[in-house]
Amino acid sequence: MECKIRNEIGTISITEDVLLKVAGYAALECYGIVAMSSKRAKDGFVEWLGREALTKGVQLRMSEDMIDVDLFIIVEYGISIATVCNSITETVRYKMESMTGVRVRHVNITVEGIRI
Fold it and tell me: According to the model, what pLDDT value does residue 44 have?
């Protein structure tokens, strides 16, 4: 999936990999998130991802002229999951829209685990 933004001067193309990295790094900036995770479809095994593979914990879907962002995360034990998720939603939406110009319709978060 490639995102194209047209303006009066020409067209800007942003690859899916760039969009995935912007969303992943924005999420990891938030307090309370320990790591991104990747769920293997076969056995449901949750895999913790480091920064080099964080894009596996992010999925994007185009919806008309907007993007839906799905994040799969692991949070720190003892903090409010709702507060962390609200912070992630606001940060990811802001970073995606300000850095790429792409409008974000939804940020969906799945908490895959808690680190004790």
Answer: 53
Single out the residue of 91, 113, 104 nearest to residue 38, CA to CA: 113
Contact 108, 69 (CB under 8 A): yes
Domain ranges of the chain: 25-115
Tokens 């969303």 appear where? 23
Q: Can you name the CATH fold of 25-115?
A: Alpha-Beta Plaits (3.30.70)
Phi and psi at 7, nearest 5°, equal: -135, -175
Could you report the per-residue pLDDT of 60-107, keeping only the tens digit for each? 998 878 999 999 998 999 999 999 999 999 999 999 999 998 999 999
Q: What is the β-pairing status of strands 46-49 and 58-63? A: unpaired
Contact 88, 33 (CB under 8 A): yes
Report H helices in the chain.
16-28, 81-100
Query: CB–CB of 63/71 below 8 Å?
Result: no
Rounded to whole angstroms, the Cα distance separating 99 from 5 reads: 13
**Paired sense of beta strands 103-115 and 66-76, if any:** parallel
